[in-house]
Amino acid sequence: MAEAEARPAEPAGWAKALMSVCSLMFGVSAWVSINGLWVQMPLLVPRLPEGWNLGSILVIVIQVANLGPLAYTLARKRVQVKAAVHATLFVGLTAGVLLVFLWQETVAGHSVAFIALAFFLSMVDCTSSVLYMPFMARYPQQFLFWYMVGEGLSGLVPAGLALAQGVDKKADNETTGNGTYGNATHAGGSVGPRFSIEVFLSLLCVIVAISWAAFSVLAHLPALVAYQIPGQTLKKKKEPSLKYGSNDNRGYVPEDETDHAVPQVPEQPNGLERAGPSDDPGKADDLMKRWQWNLALAMQSTIAALSNGVLLAVQTYSSLPYGQLPYHLATNLATIANPLSCAVAGLLPVRSLWALVLFTLGGLVSAGYILFLAVESPEPILVGTVTGAALMVFAWVAFVSLMTFVKSRLAAGMMSHGGARSLLWYGVATQGGSFVGALTMFFVTNYTHVFKSA
């Protein structure tokens, strides 16, 4: 009874609408900057001296930027959440504005300004994963949902802007050579994108500024602060919980309440229904066999290595030989597929481990085809044909869709039966795989001749 009395009243109509909009816009800031850089890669690669190696460099920069969330985690007891959020948004907006003016500046033939500012943007976005959620947990869960919708839009919005921006047909002719699909389509053309990289980066800054304003309203407007729930945490919620659906942090998905209760039925060895870790990830408890636990972690580690390291590093090699337009479509459609797959994972709660293994194998087939194209660069199979370009785009979209779905369902299964402890090992597998994949490909692409540019 006392707990019910402590709960704030339902927000008034205008306050509820304002809180929903502000929560959504605050969520957009989570990963919009880094997603924006990725979808600009088709335009950045021909203009920066790193060329086709730019993707592998950006991958390793993002991995190093995980020092941000690590530092905050270690210092969180001495830092106020609101002040920390303001600080990260300030750093993100400042780095974004500087990037508008300095992205082409080089030192000794290297894009020092771009790489340094990309590091700060990456650190801000990585830190958002451990900082923004605790703040939003102060509010009723319906507004946490809107924050998660906004975080999903942090991938869709930059991709939509990039699709509207179009491709650089002049760069297409210069970078893909004779006989490619892009050159055949735009032969003799010299038309640039509809708006420049500077305009695109400026639009990202406007989005971050709006998100910062939305956070300021949430955190300081008395009419909205009044609806914060003292001592509110995600663990205390009895409603269906919300869980992160994608490692690139590009969208949360709602989980049905049934996913969070261990069913009192006999063990089903072929699925995740009875999955649950012990204190030692190498020791299975009575809810999960050791091989199932190890298989789930191995799947997540492999997916993370491919998604966050290996394939992003060779995206240019696998896509650009087919032309700027196919490269542009592969980058942006794959980005859009990520949050959509998270949503599908929430609507289709597949719990069979073997079904997830099959989805993973499908993703590995797509990954193998992408790597094959990258190794064969600059003249991969079916180069110069519409069929080859379409297969390349399909492979990228299929890989991202399948692997994002599997990651989301693995996280759901582990959370259902192991809680925070289980997700800890899920996170260890994710970060470990991502780091190994990124570090390996950084050296392979920059210090060997396995992948060749045009």
From TrEMBL:
Q: Which residues cross the membrane?
A: 12-34, 54-72, 84-103, 109-132, 144-164, 199-227, 293-317, 329-348, 355-375, 381-402, 423-444
> Region annotation Disordered: residue ranges?
238-283
Q: Does the keyword Ribonucleoprotein apply?
A: no
Enumerate the UniProt keywords alphabetically: Cell membrane, Membrane, Receptor, Transmembrane, Transmembrane helix, Transport
The entry's protein name is: Riboflavin transporter
User: What is its biological role?
Assistant: Plasma membrane transporter mediating the uptake by cells of the water soluble vitamin B2/riboflavin that plays a key role in biochemical oxidation-reduction reactions of the carbohydrate, lipid, and amino acid metabolism.
Q: Give the matching InterPro entries.
A: Riboflavin_transptr
The chemistry this enzyme catalyses reads: riboflavin(in) = riboflavin(out)
What family does this belong to?
Answer: Belongs to the riboflavin transporter family.
| UniProt main location, coarse | membrane
Bilayer disposition of the protein? Multi-pass membrane protein
Its GO CC terms?
plasma membrane
Where is it localised? Cell membrane
* Molecular function per GO: riboflavin transmembrane transporter activity
